[in-house]
Amino acid sequence: MNxxxxxxxxxxxxxxxxxxxxxxxxYLPGASTEKIPILSPTQVPLSLxxxxxxxxxxxxxxxxxxxxEKGKLxxxxxADDEGQSYLTSGxxxxxxxxxxxxxxxSVVKAAAGWAHCASVTEEGEVYxxxxxxxxxxxxxxxxxxxxGSLQKDVAGKQSSPVAEQxxxxxxxxxxxxxxxxxxxxxxxxxxxxxxxxxARPESDSPASGDEFFTMSPSLATIGHGVKIxxxxxxxxxxxxxxxxxxxxxxxxxxxxxxxxxxxxKMVSSPHLIPCIESxxxxxxxxxxQQGSSVGAQVSKVPGSYVKEIACGGxxxxxVTDAGALLTFGWGLYGQCGQGNNADQLRPTLVPLLxxxxxxxxxxxxWHTLCVTEDGQIYAFGGNQFGQLGTGSxxxxxxxRQLEASCFENKRSSxxxxxxxxxxxxxxxxxxxxxxxxxxxxxxxxxxIDRNIPCQVPIAGCRPRNVACGWWHTLLIxxxxx
Length: 481
Fold this sequence. Notes:
Layout: H1 2-16, E1 18-26, E2 38-44, E3 53-60, E4 63-68, E5 73-76, H2 84-88, E6 97-98, E7 107-112, E8 116-121, E9 126-131, H3 183-197, E10 213-219, E11 228-233, E12 237-242, E13 247-252, E14 266-273, E15 277-278, E16 281-282, E17 306-311, E18 315-320, E19 325-329, E20 344-349, E21 358-363, E22 367-372, E23 377-381, E24 396-401, E25 412-417, E26 421-426, E27 431-435, E28 450-455, E29 462-468, E30 472-480
Antiparallel strand pairs: 1-2, 1-30, 3-4, 4-5, 5-6, 7-8, 8-9, 9-10, 11-12, 12-13, 13-14, 15-16, 17-18, 18-19, 19-20, 21-22, 22-23, 23-24, 25-26, 26-27, 27-28, 29-30
Protein name: RCC1-like domain-containing protein
Keywords: Repeat
Pfam families: RCC1_2 (PF13540), WD40_RLD (PF25390)
């Protein structure tokens, strides 16, 4: 007994000698006075009294996001000339600081899209802020049972689609062509977006974009008794996962990324997404009408609840407790993994991964990654910058297993996607990145794209989690002190 106690004391002492540290690299313009890309892992100090790092959450366009041990949502890295990015991040640049939420409850999860954020508290509540079209208003814009297609906001004006940003210098570029949008309308929206993008944060008047943007985190009214445990943010849509494995969604759904069976342009209140048909009967949301090209029934899928969610630029992915992967939304680059380029308006099984036991998923602007229960990694979707890690720039419309030599005798455990880059953490603590690297988001010391996974050189620590923002990467590690 005494020997065991001595061993326990020794273990406690070892644990007490470890400190969590966060490293960053990529495009975070306000993280340094020089406003230049960070090409190699750089430590992020946290100067909050008696607080320390707990986890990393990636972040949005030009700002980083993490959670402290005291449950504070911490942001940094944005510059005051970044417009809505600076406002969304809580105006935190070089020095990481807490986002002021209208609750004292600790934050347990958080995510950021192109211009909006969402956080989950220990009480199971979701708060969101940023572009108003991404923030639930509590008002139902459309009755899905009628199959309507025109959505208007409370003022009677049609909601404006905002294209996802592909790079810091091209805030007016879309993630691809979209035949469903009227060209004149898109042009008008670009003008509106410019008003916000270059507005100075000192002015919070309607002239600086108040009509389209809110800095105040709002509580999402999801449903009586619903407790949310996780959240994912896409380009302009959000998914939330409840403690009983149900998925809720809101925001923009023009390509089916909300999984409601239609190209509904805007959903301003959280709606249940029909993912699984259980033995007790279909989810009540399965009564929603489907578009003419797809049947109205919800497919039977392996599993009884959803355990993982992810949002890409305009597509979504969920994993059931049985390891089945379902995707929905924009399919132009094959990011839904269905072997074609069609949009998926409802959660649809990825057939080639049935039986593999998918454990983890991540989604980028145009691509998707997943890790199976035996530690294998699969990739599919757009590959213009090598973000699939296959060794080429060829698009993959079906899941393709990565067989890089660097993965020999290693099991993948965590994946994350930026806009056009990818990151992987193995169970033995090695970090790999690949894809677009114009701003150093791969952390390899240069700005050269990679189309195969490359190990990030970081010594003297044990990586615990990796999370990509749109143009940057965050890593949290245990380090002996």
